[in-house]
Structures are given as C-alpha cells and as structure tokens.
Amino acid sequence: MNSRTRQPELPSLIRQVLHESQAFIDNVFANHWKQLNLNALVRKVGFNKRTGLPVTEVVFLLMVWRWLKVQSIAMFSRQGLDLFSQANKDVMYDLLKRNDLNWQALHGQTAKSVYRQQDVAQHQVRAYVLDDSIQARRGCKMEGVSSHFDHTEGRHVLGHQVLTLGLATEQAFLPLDSQLYVGQSRVQAPQEDFDDQRCVVARRFREATRSSKPEMAANMLKRARRLGLNAEYLLGDAWFGTKTMIRTSQEVAVTAILRMKKNEMKYRFSENGQAIMLTAKELHQRVARLNWRKVNNLPYQAMSIDVQLDVSAKGEPQNWRPVRLVFVRGVADGSKSTVGKKDWALFLSTDTGLSLVKILELYALRWSIEVYFKEAKQHLGLLREQTISFASHTASIHLAAMRYLILVAAMLEDGERRVCDHRSDMEAQLTTLNFAHRLWWLFRALIWETLDTVWPDDLDQALKGNVLDAIDERMTEFFTRSLQLDALSMRLEHGC
C-alpha cells in the first residue's frame, strides 16, 4: 500500500504562473491599445509632460479606470491604481485640468485608426449621424453648464449638452467628434479667466458659447472630411432639420436625410403646372393624407412628393434645390382604433432619386447614436470624473468616445458579438486582475509568516530570502505581462 500523502493540485491559473513563464491573462483592452498605436497617437497630437510619469501612461490610466467598475478616479486610486502604476490620483486630475491638450484631435486620430484598420471604407453604406444628449449636472462651481430643454423629460434642466458626430454603417457605429454646447440661460462660466486666450480649451469654450449647434455640426463634418473619414449620407433628427444643415451637406458633398419640423418653412410644390408655396402641414392636408400607402414589412403608411426648397441664408440670393419629402404615419394597433390626425412625421432627402423605402432604411441607422449615448452614460464614464473644470469636461467626452472606439474595434474583429459583450469582457478581465493583485499581497504576507514559522534556524536564511524573491519576481512578471506593460511589449509596439 502506498502510504505517501497525495500532493494537493494547484489551481490551473497558479500552476501556469509557477511553471509557464509566458503565462498571462488575455487583456483585450491592452491588445487594442497597442493595435491602434495609441502611444504614438498621443505624442502625434502634441501631448507632453515635463517630469514624472510619462504622458502616455497617464492617458492609459485615464482610459482604463472606468473598466474596473469604480464610480470615480478617487475610488480607482484607492482600489486599483497600484496595479497599473505607482502614481497617485493627482497625476490624473492634473492632466484632465490642463488647458493646452487637444483631446478632440486625439479622439479624431483614434477614430481614423479604427476606420482604417477595420476597413470601414469598404462597408456598403456609410452615413454621418448627428445628435445631442443632455447630462444633468449640479454644483455652483460646475463650469460650462447651462439650462437646456430635455425633450425626454419635457422640462428644462441644468447640465451639459454634448453634440456628437458619428459614422454609422450596417455593421458598426464610430463616434468621430464631440463638443460641449453651452446655452444662453443660467450659464456658469469658468471660475477664472484663461491665462492664454489662444489655448485649446479657451477656444473650445468660445465656440461652445458663441456658436450655434448647426455651426458646430458643420465644423465637425469638415474636420471628419479632412481626416479622411468619409460617408455618403448625413442623418439628423428634427433639431437638425434646418436650411443650414442642408447647405452644409452640399458643402461636404453628402446626401442629407433629415427629419423635419412641422413649422412655417415653405416648400414650392407644383400642382397642375402651377407653383404654390405650402408648409409641411398644408402639404399633409392637401396631398399626403389622400395618398397613403402601406410600406412592405413595416407597420407604417407613407407617401413621397418632390418639391423645391430655398436653402439660401438670410440676406443672400435665392437658392432653390429639389428635395424629396416623405410623409410617414403609423398603422393603428390594438391600443388605438384609428391613427390620429397629428400622428405623422416628415423626412427630407436632398437626393430625389432615393426611393421612399430606401430613405426610411437609411434614416433607421440614426438609432445607433442613441445606443452609443446610452452605453457612454451608463458604462463608459461620460462626464463621470467628478470634476468641475471645463477642461476636464471636454476631456471626458472624448475619453468616453475613445473607450467606445476600442470596443468597436474588438467587435469588428470578432464579427459575431456586440459592443456590450466586449465591454463586459474587458471589465471582467481587468477586475479579475485587480482582485488577484490585491489578494496576492494577503497571500504574500501569509507565505512570509509561514516560512518564518517552519523554516529551521540552522538552514541558510539567505536561501529563504531567495525563495521569497523568486516568488515575488514571478508574480510581478505575471501581472506585468497580463497588463502588457512590459518593456518587450512596448518595444514591439513601436517596432524597435
């Protein structure tokens, strides 16, 4: 009979760490940080830091903290910062508050990297999407907030309004640019004047307070074009259904598909060879309501007419353009016996060659930006840094977009799972590493205490120290390689 005591089997992860020098946990975030070459992009847009932690490492920390499911940078500094760096939270806050850093440029370069690496230009349908979202914020020192009408709540709220331009395809949505818009009422300006009115954040604040949303949107579209982030269509809800946006679409050579308001805007309609000027409501009453037809496979009735619209700015010569108007109304369901007279919507296309069904299919891509805003607010740290400066708010909207772009890159590579699935993976991987790192220090103390107890006094004490050093070295190597922050990985990233 074999009386030897059976050796306990180590858990698989510990066994790999002790016996396989190359073992480490897969880290999707670090993989795509390197793949998108974000270290090089940070330097390309002019980020710099004179002393202390390299600026690329601080940006990495600002990107990664939200994945650990903590509510603020302060909580991250207490619960997970030591896993990634020996820095303290002040280093992160200091970078957020800097007025000379162009986070918008870094955001654009990151979007460009995803666009090129994932070959988005080959996607069959590409459309720019414009939308805004309001984040309620409180605090008498909160810079850049103002009163905005929140149509989801039906009332005015104090907070930040974020205008975003994205690129939507049938496969993915890429946030390309974002900007804070400051309204005219209850504005809370920066606590102190900018030392240099030419700095990046000073210019952004002037644009936020002096430009209209259509003007901001026009600048964002032109920046996207300059970066080579091209699309064929421009989609926007009724807030962007203006002559300004139609003119902008012509300037950047895209087809605008916009939802229009039922206001007093006049359209030139030809009836029996005679041109008459009618509003949307008059066109609906005179033409649309008499010619509804069912849209195949959709719970809608619709009809389209071609009209002309003067898109000239005030004080300029008339500029009549042919446009196609699509009137849509829902079909009565179990809750309503008939469709109400006001239950209709109006869409406009600057391409009169698009069919009614094609216009509605393209406009449906606009929903992807709503999904982005929901993900950014709930999971990606949009305006969640618990700071008050306008500079940090500006940084926050771009950091959230860059986190989403990393998820999009992972999704397009995978080809099967959704953005939220990859976000859950990243959170699980980094949370597991953080927990393992914190738990290791408890195990380390127990190992030291156990060795002190069982190690014979007549054995070489230096050997005991070597054993502990070897364990420390192996665990440090494991965490470093799992985070992919080791020198070898960094050299490979830059092709050195």
UniProtKB/TrEMBL annotation:
Gene3D superfamilies: Transposase Inhibitor Protein From Tn5, Chain A, domain 1
Alphabetical list of Pfam families matching this protein: DDE_5
InterPro entries found in the cross-reference section: IS701-like (IPR039365), IS701-like_DDE_dom (IPR038721), RNaseH-like_sf (IPR012337)
Superkingdom as given in the UniProt entry: Bacteria
Annotated ranges, domain Transposase IS701-like DDE: 88-268
Stated name of the protein: Transposase
Source organism (scientific name): Saccharospirillum salsuginis
